[in-house]
Each structure stands twice: as C-alpha cells, then as structure tokens.
Amino acid sequence: MTRHFLRDDDLSPLEQAEILDLALELKKDRNRVSPLAGPKTVAVIFDKSSTRTRVSFAVGIADLGGIPLIISTANSQLGGKESPSDTARVLERQVAAIVWRTYAQSGLEEMADGTTVPVINALSDDFHPCQLLADLLTIREHSGELAGLTLTFVGDGADNMVHSYLLAGATAGMHVRIACPDGYRPMDAVVADAEAIAEKTGGSITIYSDPVQAVAGVDVVVTDTWVSMGKEEEKEQRLLDLGRYRVDADLMALAKPEALFLHCLPADRGYEVTAEVIDGPQSVIWDEAENRLHAQKALMVWLLRQK
Ligand code: CP
Ligand code: NVA
User: Fold this and answer.
1) What whole-number distance in Å separates Cα of residue 63 and Cα of residue 163?
2) What is the pTM of this model?
3) Active-site positions?
C-alpha cells in the first residue's frame, strides 16, 4: 500500500528512527542510493513562498537520480480551477511522488486519498513534518539520543511547527513543553494525539503559560515566527500578544548550559528571538537548515521502498 507523509504521526517510532538513521548515512555519502534513476520526476508544488523547502527538495531529488518539477499554484489549475483529487489522478501517472506546500490539511488528505504515489506535506497550516525530521536529526547529531530529552517551544503555540513538535517529539520519546499565551494554544485534538503517543514512548506533553517555568533546565529551546504565512493581517495584534514570549539571552540562560537553540527559519530577529541568541554559540540553525536535505532524501527513499 502506498504510504504518505501528511503529518508527523504517519510514522511509528521505529519508522521515524529508521528514517533518521538513513538520513545520517546519506549525509555521509550523498549519492549512495538512486531510487529516482531513470530519471523519474517528482512534482513539488507550492501554494506558499519557500526558500529552504524548494531548494532542499530540488537538490535532494537530483541527488537521488531524479528530476524535480517545481510547480507554483499561481500558474497551475490547482488552487481554484481543479481539485486536489483530480490533480492527483493526472500526476500519479507521470511522477514518482508528489510534494505539496499548502494551506488546508484537508487538501493534502484529498490529494493522498487513493493516490498511488507517495504524497508528502511540505508545510500546511497545521503541520510541518519534513522540518521536524530535520530538527530531530539536528538534535540527535548534537545531543545523542532523542528519547528522554526535554524540548521547549516558546511563542505562537497554535502554529504548524508546534503541532509537529508535539507529534514528532512524542514519537521520539521526548518531553515536549509548549509556552504560549491563552488564545495561542495548540489544537486540543493534536495535544490529545501527542499525549497518547507519549504514553507509549515514555515522552510527555506539558503546556505552560509562563515561558520562564517552561524553559528551566531543558535540553532544547525552539521558537518560530510570530506571524506565519497566511496570518499577515493579524501581525499588529500578534506582536502585542506574543511580546512576553521572545527567546532572549536571559530566557536561554535558564535552560541547561549546553542547551541547543533551533528555529526552522525564516526568522524575525528582535521579535520571536534576539540576534544574540539566534546568532550565538548555542544556535544550530544552519545545521538544521542543511538537514532538510538529508532528512527529506531519507524520507523519499523510505516512502518509495514501501510501494
Ligand atoms: N523552514 C522552511 O520551511 O523554510 P522555507 O519556508 O524557506 O521553505
Ligand atoms: N510557521 C511558519 C513556518 C515557516 C517555515 C509559517 O507557516 O509561516
């Protein structure tokens, strides 16, 4: 049966670990496997802007022997004139996989439903699971094993990265803490799903309103933009509401001395994080950005093997 990667918990703990192991191997030897030799084509569709996702999928598909077909919905029939499901029927006869950055998670579900090639979520309003594979890879490289580590996200608790940290962190057996104001809390259903996973893996989920309490003694501190794509009209209100949730040197000093700082980027220095922290010695953001390439290659190799 065709496997898709629409949200982080589409992978079991064992499968997630297998993909991270493979990513480390591919990082050492970029051209070790060529499942897209032929060359086969992978469609990479963007409804929203992107730098890292566009580049890392294009380079990764080429590394695997294939050809990336980058499609912008602005000049395709998808996104208005044609449904995700009809688009999938057309694409699946010609491409080896479909990668899609979009708004509604339901669109991805429709794209994947009954489709014979893997569909990969390259960011939706609800999740950013490819980024999480890169983040977990980065934490593993710098801190060793993931299980048992405590990670705190500070900021907009309702954003796609938070939902992915909850699910992917729980899958990895991590203790995931979210520090956010009321009105910016993660979706209840995702918290419940993450708690159910954490119960099996030995991880845990805790939501805080106080960032100081949430960061005390943790291994990893993460944040993300206060104004995600699609939320631009709320910018002014968000800057007011989230002002107390900035990661600065004082907050970072409450974590373990060797704690890592991660940010999926792009960042707004001076808003969700100060320049001192994001450009400081604990920040691993450039490894994190590079690891998008290795993690997504491993994901594609793994998904193509399941067919
Ligand atoms: N982190 C991330 O997904 O970056 P882009 O929006 O540049 O792809
Ligand atoms: N939460 C951000 C992530 C960008 C990679 C957004 O959706 O804009």
Assistant:
1) 30
2) 0.98
3) 101, 128, 131, 224, 264, 292
